[in-house]
Design a protein that fits this description.
Layout (H helix, E strand, L loop, with lengths): L7 H17 L5 E5 L14 E5 L5 E5 L8 H5 L2 H6 E2 L15 H10 L10 H13 L1 H24 L9 H6 L19 H6 L14 H19 L2 H10 L1 H10 L6 H4 L5 H18 L10 E2 L5 E6 L2 E3 H8 L3 H7 L7 E3 L5 E6 H9 L1 H7 L15 E2 L6 E2 L3 H4 L13 E3 L6 H7 L4 H8 L11 E3 L2
Antiparallel strand pairs: 1-2, 2-3, 4-5, 6-9, 7-8, 10-11, 12-13
Helix pairs in contact: 5-6, 5-13, 6-9, 9-10, 10-11, 10-13
């Protein structure tokens, strides 16, 4: 920051004011939201920004988390949304957001029943305004979808004795979209990266991605958050580390001179992480005080009860839908971990979740399902050995010099012959029938032991 030449007292006072402004984010900062199409970002970041300007003209840019973009259309296309969530036509509240004072926001944040600190500043205010103004319909949807997911989140957090306000972390991670995928490759409600997922026993392969399983991912996230708290001992640092990784938090701590308060290491954090904790506070506020902002939860019909069967063979969703007369979208919705519409039960027994009323029908038709299954992968292919014709000479020859050095018994040499192994044949019996030796047959065919398989062709000369 450029400072005018003043006497030493004025310089000291001004420096202290600027430092205090960076740490506490006082009211002298004004928040401005800049749309991505109004300003090009050199890193091609899709999120919008918060631009903070102090009384000296210094600016600070902060990114909104990706889930705070207006993506309601994709959320409404989810099966659960189309089937169980709908607009409440009885809600007659205004579409406008009432205006409240700074003191009212501070009081509401203080009164929330949380263990975690929920302070007010202008970045938090900008994030609250984001949820209560532009993202009003998304908050309305998330309030409806919370009926599906919050009991799962709370159960996992309770299992690790963690603050229950962490259940709102998936709101800023994925906007409660179980199949959300970030540009960096994070996936699921809790947005696990592949490496972290495997550390916490979530299996990720071409057919299965347990990051998309709400229950397994929630327990893995609770375990991860518990481990982060053991390292940092401060919940704001924990969720900041959840966003950018422990190494970036440790780097910010070192650069701040050893401070272990989120708001004191704040200037040294990545741009998105500077907006992450304020967004988390704002999510807790919006999900608690939505009525005060005239936001109506969407109506929710709880889905039918489900049960699980274990499958030890591969079964496609399309086969289940066709034979059992089920909606394939429903099967996908209940089993989001399977990436290609197939339960890969041949790998190991795999769960299939279905509505309770459909379980009996599935069990009755299970044999028909297995019989109808057509695997796209071939179990075995026959390798045909062709004599390559030399295009330059018109003569038959071998493809490479190496094949030409196979010796007098090589394929294509004069007097060579092959036999097909019959059931019950042994190498000694084949050698005797063809006036040769066992050692010669082994050498010609690259056989090391004495085992041979019926149907295999062997060279004997």
């Amino acid at each position: 920051m450029k400072v005018m030449k003043l006497d030493w007292i004025e310089r000291m006072v001004k420096s202290m004011v600027v430092l205090l402004g960076l740490v506490l984010m006082p009211l002298t900062l004004s928040a401005q939201i800049i749309d991505e199409d109004e300003e090009d970002d050199e890193d091609d970041v899709e999120e919008e920004e918060i631009i903070l300007t102090d009384q000296y003209g210094n600016t600070d840019e902060i990114d909104f988390p990706a889930a705070m973009t207006d993506n309601l259309d994709s959320l409404m296309n989810l099966y659960a949304s189309k089937t169980y969530i709908s607009t409440d036509n009885n809600c007659q509240t205004s579409n406008t957001d009432p205006t409240y004072s700074r003191e009212e926001y501070i009081d509401r944040l203080y009164r929330m029943p949380t263990i975690m600190e929920m302070p007010y500043n202008e970045v938090v205010r900008a994030c609250i305004d984001r949820y209560t103004v532009r993202l009003r319909r998304q908050v309305s949807w998330m309030l409806g979808a919370a009926n599906f997911y919050m009991p799962i989140f709370e159960e996992a957090l309770e299992a690790y004795q963690l603050p229950l306000e962490l259940k709102y972390l998936p709101i800023i991670e994925s906007a409660l979209n179980p199949v959300a995928v970030s540009r960096a490759g994070a996936c699921g409600l809790w947005q696990f990266m592949p490496g972290t997922a495997k550390m916490y026993n979530l299996e990720v392969n071409s057919l299965l991605d347990e990051r998309r399983d709400p229950v397994k991912a929630s327990y893995a996230a609770a375990h991860f958050l518990s481990d982060l708290y053991k390292v940092f001992g401060d919940w704001n640092l924990v969720i900041a580390a959840y966003n950018c990784g422990p190494e970036n938090i440790n780097k910010a701590i070192r650069r701040s001179g050893g401070e272990r308060d989120y708001w004191k290491i704040y200037p040294y954090l990545p741009r998105e992480t500077r907006g992450y904790v304020p967004a988390f506070i704002a999510a807790n506020y919006a999900m608690t005080y939505y009525c005060e902002h005239n936001i109506c939860p969407m109506s929710t019909q709880l889905p039918v009860k489900t049960d699980t069967v274990m499958l030890s063979r591969n079964v496609k969703f399309s086969e289940i839908a066709d034979i059992c007369g089920m909606d394939i979208e429903m099967i996908r919705s209940l089993n989001p971990a399977y990436r290609h519409d197939m339960v890969p039960g041949a790998t190991r027994p795999m769960p299939l979740k279905l509505p309770l009323n459909d379980i009996n029908r599935f069990v009755e038709l299970e044999d028909s399902l297995f019989a109808a299954h057509r695997d796209d992968k071939r179990l075995e292919v026959e390798l045909n050995e062709h004599i390559i014709k030399d295009n330059t000479t018109g003569n038959t020859g071998h493809k490479s010099k190496r094949s030409g050095r196979r010796g007098r018994g090589g394929k294509g040499s004069k007097g060579s012959s092959t036999v097909t192994v019959k059931k019950g044949d042994t190498l000694s019996a084949i050698a005797k029938r063809n006036n040769t030796t066992v050692a010669n047959i082994k050498r010609l065919n690259g056989i090391k032991g004495n085992n041979i398989r019926a149907g295999k062709k062997l060279r004997v000369k």
